[in-house]
Known about the structure:
The complex is a heterodimer. Chain A is of the alpha+beta class.
Amino acid sequence: MAVMTEAPEAVASDSMLSGVELRGVMKRYGRHLALAELDLTIRDGEFFCLLGPSGCGKTTTLNLIGGFVAPTEGTISLHGRRIDTLPPHKRPVNTVFQSYALFPHMSVLENVGFGLRMDRVAKAEMRRRAQEALALVGLEAYGDRSPAQLSGGQQQRVAVARALVKRPAVLLLDEPLGALDLKLRQRLQLELAQIHREVGTTFVYVTHDQEEAMAMADRIAVLNDGRIEQLGTPHEIYRRPATRFVADFIGHANFLDVTVEDDVAVLADGTRVPCAGGRSAGPATLMLRPEALRLTDPASPPPGSVRGRAVQSAFLGAHVRVNVACAASETPLVVALQGQDVTAIPEPDSEVAVAWDAADGLLLEPARDGQVGP
Amino acid sequence: MSAAATAVELTAPVPRHRRFAGAAASYAGFLPAIVLFGGFFLVPLAIIVCYSFWEVVNYDVVHHWTLGNYDYFFSVSTYVTTMWATLWVAVVATAITIALAFPFAYWLSRYVPQRLRPLLLVLVVVPFWTSYLLRVYSWLTILGEKGLLNRFLQWTGITDHPIGLFLYDRPAVILVLIYLYFPFAALTLYASIERFDWDQLRAAMDLGAPPLTALRKVLIPQIRPGIVTAVIFVFIPVLGEYLTPQIIGGLNGIMIGNLVVNFFQAAEYTRGAAVSLLIAAFIILLLFIFRRSLSAPEAYGG
């Protein structure tokens, strides 16, 4: 893959300023509130992910930055300059659409060159830069083809090249890998991350796939119901989810209803279980990741462990998943045993005890009414 | 499949008569069309062509070959003027009809929810439930001296006496023709815009194209076959119109179709045939201009 020779000019000159800034952005469709008071700063050059379930407002946020949707309230600026008043064709922002939206009546090279043609770039220069962008995505030999002659993955790459050819200050990607199969998706995730490093442009990536977000993003904003639930690095969001929603959305999580007394979590039956603390007295949710749990001998359980019954074990290659039914949780606890524990797979219906380190027991807000476990 | 069939033919030649029978069978479906098209179109057309080169003597068609009918038509300046005026009316009416139908089809396929579209399409077609003549005559009650338009203008005080200008001239004819042919253009354009992926327009604007440029460079090229079809559906029938110009246009609004009718009513069959063929010549010229956009592969996005 070739490296794009010139850095985006806007980025180079204004590197001291923040990238995209959304201040008090609200979007209402009739009576439906799509986004509520969004404050968000996307740093220059970072790979930023907007992650959330469908209808959470992530695509609306992307469309607000791209200019296809106008905010009901609030301002959007890029490098300190307001852009929410500009029409889409005047924003230094380009988009990779979910459907790719390639122009079927143009060749691949004409597709990639379209943005430059709109800028009245000279023909030879246009060809050179379009060819360069195609080389960036590994399709330099495909310029004369028509988009219909390309596979889904190749079309996706053309869409990326077409959006990058104008060296935008920000590249918006709207679930660009959604239509591809898993293997191809994983390969393109690597390629996109690589392209991001090569061009250094800010990427704003929308997805509902948490693994995709974790694999590529520098920072992730988890959205729910038009609000940011948490903003942080993949590590922070996985290890220290701020809310029950985030814990549940990112990876798998076990939830136990507890009461906090003197920095200790107490189950309904009075068992005092280890937790990281940091929450004032009262009802709370104890969040435990499957890989933080251990199975111990039920004959002599360590203090603070939870007794239960192994209802099912499944060998999943990299780890063994054991479901443990226990009185403390309505749904079975999910325990992920890593490689070295595989010999200790419990028999179905055998008694087990589940233990964990205090540092791995995270206290979150209590379950709301009607919100029952994951 | 066809490759396999070719391979078989190459290795084992099929007897000639069986090959012919096979070929004939595959064309059998065309038979009704050939009978209909040949018997009711090609044969009458051939008769008209012959007529246009014969002459009428004492109200009788004489099989005497001549170019006199064409000569005569082009020697009378009123006829030539009417011919050019007809072309002009057809061009203007077609252009305005398409210009009105395009935004309609665009709006319908982009902004109207799927479930409301059938209703709107039915509303477009509703005028066809009444007779053509009735629809044309109804315009007299709108444009006439005591018509709706004049009464409205007098009621608002814009004028104190009826304006006769609305009727019996070409603008009125063009107005009614637009009204008559709008549904054809709207339905044809809707059918071709409906399949368009609107993200492409957003992509074009995202890449720096102002809205109208995006339309011109991305939408229009992809629906060109639909536009050409709409133009043909409007232009061809308008060129041969004679009732609307007669009822709405009066003496000033006469078109070439009226000349044909007049010739035939005066038993000048050979001159009428010649004028009909002139109309046909213009239509063939139009189809020739658009021949590339009408080729099947382009029409189906190939």
